[in-house]
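Team,

Forwarding the record for the chain on the shared tracking sheet. I've put the sequence and predicted structure together so nobody has to dig through attachments.
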Amino acid sequence: MPNPAYYIMAKPIGAVCNLDCKYCYYLEKEKLYPNNPDKYHMSDKVLELFIASYIHGQAGRSILFTWHGGEPLMRGIDFFKKVIELQKKYGAGKYIENSLQTNGTLLTDDWCLFFKENKFLIGLSIDGPEHCHDHYRTYKDGKPSFAKTMMGVELLIKHGVDFNTLSVVNDYNSKYPLEVYRFLKQIGSRFMQFIPIAEWIDPDSTPDQLSILAPNSGKNAVVTDWSVDPVDYGNFLIKIFDEWVSRDVGNYYVITFDAVLANWLGEPPAICVYAKTCGTAAAMEFNGDVYACDHFVFPEYKLGNVRNTLLETMMQSDFQRKFGRDKWDKLPRYCFQCEFLKLCTGECPKNRFLTTPDGQPGLNYLCAGFKLFYAHVAHYMKFMANEIRNDRAPSNVMEWIKRKQAKVKPVVQEPAKILAPKKMIVHRNDPCPCGSGMPYKKCCALKPRSQQGISG
């Protein structure tokens, strides 16, 4: 049986960045390498070892390289020209693709021409319109970054560079879901990823210690102010989903929605957080150190170094395999009683720092929000899954919704009818209705009809 494909998120500049986003979980990883003589720059030697080992360890014909940071553009364009040369040198006829995540503020015409020529897919970090983006994404002096990021967007569009967007959902922009979604559509993003920020920190950490903790640290910790509220996150997804499912299916793609639909169908989702197990996506630091996951760059999760161990060996190690299985194996009992487990699969292990109602550790911080979202989308997912199983387009859901809405006609209140007075029937021997006390035959019956007080 062939080994499963694995992915390495390479950090050519480590945790160095020209921005100082307040919610960034990665910038403090500089503390792992104090007084580093390389200034966090990946050397040509480490780069070559990485590319050769990565290509060698991949069984498939298509290979994806992912460059991340910090801000990878700070490593310079010559570094990435070297990347292309080495990929050609070791490619052995395989089809090689590159993706790069950037905040967009350092993009230039030269960068975009290079990306277009070499078919890079650019992931742009942008949190929505100006007031949402600049709330946390600022320079080190506190100045906002939105204007420079938008200049980067314009350059990507100008040169026809393919890009998608990654938006961090935090305590602030989670209040503006449709504003964020419509803005991303407006700037040309057709593929969107919404990443919830959920971090807990050690309030007693010293300046030389990591403050953000792994979920199983055992330390007393507090959730950061910028972490998204779970219910707000659920409602954020719901608001965007409602617009997407009624207007945008097949034209715009939200990776969370695609992953949930894949799980509904029983197919492997595109992202590890919604898969039953993980461990196939690791992170490599600028010096060649490899960690089990980008969210687990802690000393206890270090797998080795590319300078002395093949990537394939590290990714197939007992430690990494167990790390991947633990995603499912360490779910609390509470999760196995949940009707949405097949859709959620516990989500990312790094967010499992709550305690269940019965006192067991390992509950996902975002659980309440996920339950709201999954309950809301269930009947739409069921419809789209059925369309796919029958070789029909899931976008048919939009017409289905229109038909359903057309059948629900509003109730129109008709004006009240003015009824004619009811005809009164009086017999000859009855008391006269005029109140005289005489029999009708001896009273009003003797009067002309026009003078009788009887309607009819």
